[in-house]
């Protein structure tokens, strides 16, 4: 049955509401992040101005008449000026909305409430929560506020008024409370509130301990031997590799790789010119190793045209014209001397005249 117009309208409304809730949670996290950055910058500014004074030249008179710089409004303003980058809209907006709270804390609350982040972000404008709690009411994260996710993951919204408190487990852990181990890990220690997941041996898909004898199941590329231990499968020895004719198989733990043969080889069993199955064209077997054939030193001439010289190269050779000769139409002809060129040009000129 096709959905009715009212069904589509309800679905659209539900989707819009879900997006708004998601955006609101992100905004709450962002607000806490902005507030935390402001208070951190305030602490840095407080340290930066710790040894400063009014800068008028007569500090003793100024502090006697204007109060101490240490607790002065001038110092407060100097700190506040450095809290936000000019490009940060969220930071400047929050600072503008709540600047009077900084004045209240500076002059009336600082002694009793020295932790500005706690007083301002958590207790006063209520955009953050204490560590280990989340959401509008600062509820404890899964696993408890002391050790969220039992110390094996991150609580969504931890320390903010957003999030849902669910755990994103660290590598090796899974489950709602991050107490279980994923495949490839085992519980070295486990009780109701603590879990230590340790990686299995590289040969194990699942295991109960740290060695290759503790595998419940071997990974692909390993197989069980007579002692029920997982050992590496040598794909190269079994001939199950997919290497090409100009490659050789190199066994690795749990797998294998295909490497190119040396260029002197035509097929090979390993790396180097001494592992060739046969030698490539231009090379010859010399006591089990493929070496270059020097075509230029063979009894039969490699370069047969007149005035040519043979030059040996790796796996081949080339024919070049001897000194005093140059190639012309595939033949080596004598290179004309400079005087001969001029005489020829002069004779040609006289013939025209």
Automatic annotation (TrEMBL):
Residues 137-179, 292-331 form the EGF-like domain. Residues 1-24 form the signal peptide. Pfam families: EGF_CA. GO terms for molecular function: calcium ion binding. The keyword Signal applies. Disulfide bonds join 169-178. Keywords: Disulfide bond, EGF-like domain, Repeat, Signal. Gene3D superfamilies: Laminin (2.10.25.10). It comes from the Eukaryota. GO terms for biological process: epithelial cell differentiation. CDD domains: EGF_CA, FU. Belongs to the CRELD family. This is EGF-like domain-containing protein. It comes from Salarias fasciatus (Jewelled blenny). The gene is creld2.
């Amino acid at each position: 049955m096709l959905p009715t117009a009212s069904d589509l309208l309800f679905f659209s409304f539900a989707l819009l509401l879900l997006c708004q809730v998601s955006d609101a949670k992100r905004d709450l996290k962002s607000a806490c992040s902005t507030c935390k950055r402001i208070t951190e910058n305030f602490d840095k500014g407080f340290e930066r101005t710790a040894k400063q004074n009014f800068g008028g030249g007569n500090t003793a008179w100024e502090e006697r008449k204007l109060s101490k710089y240490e607790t002065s409004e001038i110092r407060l303003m100097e700190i506040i000026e450095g809290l936000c980058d000019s490009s940060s809209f969220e930071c400047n907006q929050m600072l503008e909305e709540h600047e009077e709270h900084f004045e209240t804390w500076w002059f009336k609350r600082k002694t009793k409430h020295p932790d500005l982040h706690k007083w301002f972000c958590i207790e006063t404008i209520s955009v953050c929560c204490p560590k280990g709690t989340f959401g509008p009411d600062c509820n404890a994260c899964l696993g408890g506020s002391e050790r969220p996710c039992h110390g094996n993951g991150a609580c969504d919204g931890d320390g903010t008024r957003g999030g849902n408190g669910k755990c994103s487990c660290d590598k090796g852990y899974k489950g709602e409370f991050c107490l279980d181990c994923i495949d490839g890990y085992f519980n070295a220690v486990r009780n109701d509130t603590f879990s230590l997941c340790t990686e299995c041996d590289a040969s194990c898909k699942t295991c109960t301990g740290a060695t290759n004898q503790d595998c419940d199941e071997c990974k692909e590329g390993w197989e069980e031997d007579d002692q029920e231990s997982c050992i590496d499968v040598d794909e190269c020895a079994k001939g199950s590799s997919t290497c090409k004719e100009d490659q050789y198989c190199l066994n690795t733990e749990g797998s294998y790789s295909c490497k190119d043969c040396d260029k002197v080889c035509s097929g090979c069993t390993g790396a180097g010119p001494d592992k060739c199955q046969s030698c490539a064209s231009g090379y010859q077997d010399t006591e089990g190793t493929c070496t270059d054939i020097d075509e230029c030193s063979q009894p039969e001439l490699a370069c047969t045209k007149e005035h040519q010289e043979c030059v040996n190269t790796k796996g081949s050779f080339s024919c070049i014209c001897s000194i005093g000769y140059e190639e012309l139409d595939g033949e080596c002809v004598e290179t004309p001397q400079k005087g001969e060129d001029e005489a020829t040009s002069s004779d040609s000129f006289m013939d025209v005249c």
